[in-house]
Design brief:
globular, 309 residues, alpha/beta, single chain, five-stranded parallel sheet
Amino acid sequence: MAHRHLLQIEGLHPQQIEAMLDLAESYVLLNRSGKTQRDLLRGRTLINLFFEDSTRTRTSFELAGKRLGADVINMSVSTSSVNKGETLLDTAATLNAMMCDLLVVRHDQSGAPNLLAQKVDAAVINAGDGTHEHPTQALLDALTIRRRKGRLEGLIVAICGDVLHSRVARSNIHLLSAMGAIVRVVAPPTLIPAEAARLGVAVFHDMAKGLAGADVVMMLRVQRERMNGGLVPSAREYFHFFGLDFDKLAHAKKDAIVMHPGPMNRGVEIDSAVADDPVRSVIKEQVEMGVAVRMAVLDILARENRRNV
């Protein structure tokens, strides 16, 4: 990869993305076989430092690290010195003293993982920072799409919902655009970021038009915790116009797949019948791909940092 850290998708070359997806593909097969590579990261320490609550991402990184043989430590910010007023730079100094090798960081402020990457000796992986990026989520989404559709190039991908607050949307836009997909964003005007046009995506405010002919429908969680109020009138009205049900999905291609990064607000951004559909929904598959992708990322960064020591 020629990178010490994985902080964002923006700026990665298609060949680098392809290499990570190919390696992750091999880990999918390994995981399904029931085998592990516990010697690959033996003697290495992985610290999960999550300043925001997470179930899927933290557990996925923990499982990925353990399957590769790393010593995994989950730092609870709610009971740590950070919660007592310690600065991020003080935390970096503490982590350096611990001599960890891999640091997975989720933070509610955009740029926090980047700051830590400048101050720690470990390889830093951004597990989501503010509204900036969530690179491993985009990678697992891309792997899920590629496995179902056989390619990324030329596919029409509609990203629907709270695009304004979504780091998942930003990482996916960068990755899918780099790999030659046609990206649309579909949301009410209040949930579309001002820079959407600069990102090279087509903007729609109507689900029927936005989903027309789409190969992939990627729903986003309505992030109530990041909203200052007034962006959507009510959950019921939001679902009526922008929640995915089978009537709206009918505008996409007949073999279009449905995705969601989780956790889902059922009945707000997606109907349960669509989310649980065994043919169209790949939401459970996304979770499985998450472990394989994070194994691949840990593998690559551990090797890259071993060369740089």
